[in-house]
């Protein structure tokens, strides 16, 4: 069984890894080992963190060949997100951009309305736009029309490690949206990542779960294995789960001719 | 003699060098309440905004009885995922003292969840020390004959160059509280200069009106810190005897006016040691919490300074708040407001700051001087002595940026010089 053809395509790039690694909240010196153990081909980073003269710039720790996905964290509306995306491009971070727009400093929940506006503008400028959003089917459909390359619904509040609190709504997006659905935020354990992949998610983004673990590279590897397992299960087609009792071994309709 | 009165008498001092007339005015303010203005009455030019936060904070503090809480209340608070106000009250009470370690453990987990292992570094830059207020505990007070100084534009720029060369990317600009010596436009010019050298510009100056905050935002300021000093109105009136700072409600609403003026963030603090620290800590946390609820996009942070010795008066001390009590307050802040920034001052020792950075702190100052125009000498740049203004208070942790960054790294933390883009 080969997985070579099972690729995730974003912005014309084909990726064989379905694990997008975060780079915040842990020491940059661990990034290289985390990427290696995760088998990650994409890594997000906060533009505001890269916007420094600091001798140890986080950008210097990103291994060659890994696609950067700069995020617009800190933006409070579409205008600010667009400006941060332009800054990312000027810093040499490529043309991928993950839109994060928050108007609430307590929960950091994404603002879907402003995210939609920023997606329209940045997609029109040629960016590969990955909008982080609250899983709302109507907004997701509008994001498709606006030119998003994927949609990134949250599983639970960012940094909460609570898993798939929004599982039912993410399932609707997976079923109804033709773009890749990448579950972002809230995934706190490999088992939760595995479940999202079994549901048909295209990829997983995780950061806090690694950063708050005791061993970042090892947890990166655990996520890699879980994501691969979930993907394989999805491709194989999960067996049915009976909600009550067992199936009759003699079909009830066996008498029919 | 009341507790508060006794404490004020410990803080009051007569510096040598004051004229007999000045000394007479000073003593009258200290001894004759009829010589003082009403601390609740606004002065001409002070903007009033429509806000009920003052009343809500004061009502909560008035109802708070720290002695009412027992260990069962503390355990319940520690078991809650989201803390209610009564949980915060329990964690600030004496009953929580034996639970410092579990509080710290949980505080650390919250800090890591929200901020990872990052700690931001910044430095303050005092550009003037003129002051029109008589606050009895402060080294800048108008009856303390210290060397006064206000840096000119070229001097400010020189100081900024020296600081920026050390690698610092965030600066906090401070003045004494004198509108006449350090006007809003003067502060605006300093903000414009700071913008050229730094990514993030904070202000800790006298409270002002919304349109003035809007002006300073347009000149490059990003956030505003105003210390309320104490939320205990009676004690506030006993300690702040003269000047615009005597007007308690105008100061209280400063953060709200700053946000209305477009500032991205605001910082809060009581100066622990001026009054009952448990009540002041409760008030500070509630002030911040209510502001965040009213302005959900505002970046909120808290500081936790204790009284320190000042020029001409070495005996200013934080009283009953030892490091254990300070740690308890900081952990309670973290558990009640897990998303808030917490800044720890160079008033505290290097050992305390190293330890607390692992539990709650998100921002720490380095390369600190609280004097005026002395970065050249303190950063080892100048050969000829330049005029310098005296310091506001004595600092404890004198580490440079490089030393601080190295020490934090050694503690398993990640020193960060900037996490901000002014979009």
Short overview:
The complex is a heterodimer of chains A (257) and B (423). Chain A is an alpha/beta fold and 257 residues long.
Can you tell me about this structure?
- The complex is a heterodimer of chains A (about 260) and B (about 425).
- Chain A is an alpha/beta fold and about 260 residues long.
- Chain A has a single domain, classed as Alpha-Beta Barrel (TIM Barrel), CATH 3.20.20.70.
- Helix content of chain A is about 35%, strand content about 15%.
- Chain A has helices at about 30-40, 45-50, 80-90, 110-125, 135-145, 165-175, 190-200, 210, 215-235, and strands at about 10, 15, 20, 40-45, 65-70, 95-100, 130-135, 150-155, 180-185, 205.
- In chain A, the strands form three sheets. In chain A, strands 5-4-3-10-9 form a five-stranded parallel sheet. Chain A has a three-stranded parallel sheet with strand order 6-7-8.
- Chain B is of the alpha/beta class and about 425 residues long.
- Chain B has one domain: Aldolase class I (TIM Barrel, Alpha-Beta Barrel), CATH 3.20.20.
- Helices cover about 40% and strands about 15% of the residues of chain B.
- The N and C termini of chain B lie far apart (about 55 Å).
- The interface of A and B includes residues 46, 81 and 106 of A.
Give descriptors for this structure.
heterodimer; A: 257 residues; alpha/beta; TIM Barrel; five-stranded parallel sheet; globular; B: 423 residues; eight-stranded parallel barrel; two-stranded antiparallel ribbon; 17 helices; 13% strand
Helix percentage of chain B? 40-55%
* CATH-scheme architecture of chain B: Alpha-Beta Barrel
Mean of residue pLDDT of chain A? Answer: 89
Biggest interface, and residues per chain? A-B, 36 and 27 residues
What layout of secondary structure does this protein have?
The complex is a heterodimer of chains A (257) and B (423).
Chain A: E1 8-10, E2 13-15, E3 19-21, H1 31-38, E4 42-46, H2 47-50, E5 67-71, H3 78-90, E6 96-99, H4 112-124, E7 128-133, H5 137-146, E8 152-153, H6 167-176, E9 182-184, H7 190-199, E10 203-206, H8 208-211, H9 216-236
Parallel strand pairs in A: 3-4, 3-10, 4-5, 6-7, 7-8, 9-10
Antiparallel strand pairs in A: 1-2
Helix pairs in contact in A: 1-9, 3-4, 4-5, 7-9
Chain B: H1 3-11, H2 20-31, H3 53-63, H4 71-79, H5 85-92, H6 100-115, E1 118-128, E2 134-135, H7 153-165, E3 170-175, H8 184-197, E4 200-204, H9 210-218, E5 223-229, H10 233-239, E6 240-242, H11 248-252, H12 254-260, E7 265-270, H13 277-294, E8 299-303, H14 323-336, E9 341-344, H15 350-357, E10 363-365, H16 375-378, H17 401-410, E11 414-416
